[in-house]
Design brief:
Structural class: alpha/beta
CATH topology of the largest domain: Metallo-beta-lactamase, Chain A
Bound molecules: zinc ion
CATH superfamily of the largest domain: Ribonuclease Z/Hydroxyacylglutathione hydrolase-like
Shape: globular
Distance between the termini: 30 Å
Number of helices: 11
CATH architecture of the largest domain: 4-Layer Sandwich
Mean pLDDT: 88
Radius of gyration: 19 Å
Number of strands: 15
Oligomer: single chain
Largest sheet: 7 strands, mixed
Order of helices and strands: HHEEEEHEHHEHEEEEEHEEHHHEEH
Helix content: 25-40%
């Protein structure tokens, strides 16, 4: 499955399609038990706006988190969820301010983060839309190539937007979750918005590979913004903190280190995950619960297995993509052992019934 098909699967919001693509021709996932939130037909809808700190609010659901920063003369939105959520986003913003939306900053080009930019633009035609410049190539083809989703401004490595208490600092540190990841710091709030490099407090999804790249990227972020940030808002999920981000950076690096050791010793990928599990610091990142709103449909522990598989494929010079090492079990080759299908299997009904918020 190539990266464009990933986007299509994400747009469809279909766990069934995603899970079957991840798992190959395995048995279909069992239906969730009665009373469980529907997971196969789409994402959970946006929830009521929540206060984070100062003039910063968050809207959960409908795709990635939308951060709402109320400024002197207007509102900046960070990410705009899946298509179709524009009215809900603006209705939630209207609960806290009547100021216009003046700026949209997107953390990356995936549809669950830019999908409602066109609607908001239709209501505020002069809105600035800012993305890292590599997003232009990612948006150049497919259903997300329409002009209303494209940025009005791009930057390369760093950009300052606004001044005084309204100031935002945008950073790009190379390839990671995508080729165009943007991290946003709001200095007045001592807050960092992560995009999908940190989501649901687990290692990030790597649809285009980059197990080593993500460790490099996260370390650069930590060293650049250290001392400026207390609150870390994840791209999906919840509000974390500086210690949580430092733990993720250590984990992303340790994952590559342990994967390399196991690969060189001709051990299976699960051996690397078992080594990570020996470190109690990493326990939250290896949790076995399904997280509320996780449309990619698996646990932090399964994600760790996927990312070790990605690292193995990269060490071996094999292709990495959605469903290739990144969800489907890694097949054994002459260069490495394969992974256990159980490690990345779809969640069971019991796991779905045990979904947690954090
Ligand atoms: Zn996302
Ligand atoms: Zn993403």
């Amino acid at each position: 499955m190539n990266s464009k098909m990933v986007l299509v699967a994400l747009v469809a919001g279909s766990l069934a399609a995603t899970a079957s693509a991840q798992q190959g021709a395995g048995p279909a996932p069992a239906a969730p038990p009665a009373g469980a939130a529907p997971r196969g037909g789409g994402l959970p809808p946006p929830e009521p706006i929540q206060h984070v700190t100062g003039n910063v609010y968050k809207i959960f659901g409908g795709g990635g988190n939308t951060l709402v920063f109320v400024q002197k003369d207007g509102v900046t939105l960070l990410d705009t969820k899946m298509p179709g959520n524009g009215p809900a986003i603006l209705a939630e913003v209207a609960k806290i301010t009547d100021k216009p939306v003046t700026t949209i900053i997107s953390t990356h080009s995936h549809p669950d983060h830019i999908g409602s930019t066109d609607y908001i633009r239709s209501k505020y035609p002069d809105v600035r839309v800012i993305m890292q410049e590599n997003a232009l190539a990612e948006l150049a083809s497919g259903p997300f190539s329409k002009p209303e989703l494209k940025p009005t401004e791009t930057y390369k490595d760093h950009m300052t937007v606004g001044s005084g208490d309204d100031r935002l600092e945008l950073y790009h540190f190379g390839r990671g979750h995508t080729n165009a990841d943007t991290f946003v710091v709001i200095p007045a709030a001592r807050l960092l918005f992560m995009g999908d490099v940190m989501a649901w407090n687990m290692a990030p999804f790597l649809p285009s590979g980059g197990a080593e790249a993500i460790a490099d990227e996260t370390e650069k972020l930590v060293s650049t913004v250290r001392g400026q940030v207390d609150i870390v808002v994840e791209g999906h999920g919840y509000v974390n903190d500086w210690a949580g981000l430092e733990r993720l950076a250590r984990f992303d690096r340790a994952l590559v280190t342990e994967a390399r050791k196991a690969y060189d010793a001709h051990e299976a990928p699960g051996v690397a995950v078992a080594a990570l599990q020996k470190n109690p610091d990493f326990a939250p990142l290896l949790d076995t619960h399904i997280k509320k709103g996780l449309e990619y449909g698996n646990t932090p522990l399964a994600r760790a297995h996927m990312n070790v598989n990605v690292a193995y494929a990269e060490f071996a010079g094999e292709p990495v993509g959605f469903g290739v090492a990144n969800g489907a079990p890694l097949p054994a080759t002459d260069k490495h052992l394969g992974s256990d299908p159980k490690d990345t299997a779809p969640p069971t009904p019991e796991m779905l019934a045990d979904e947690v918020s954090k």
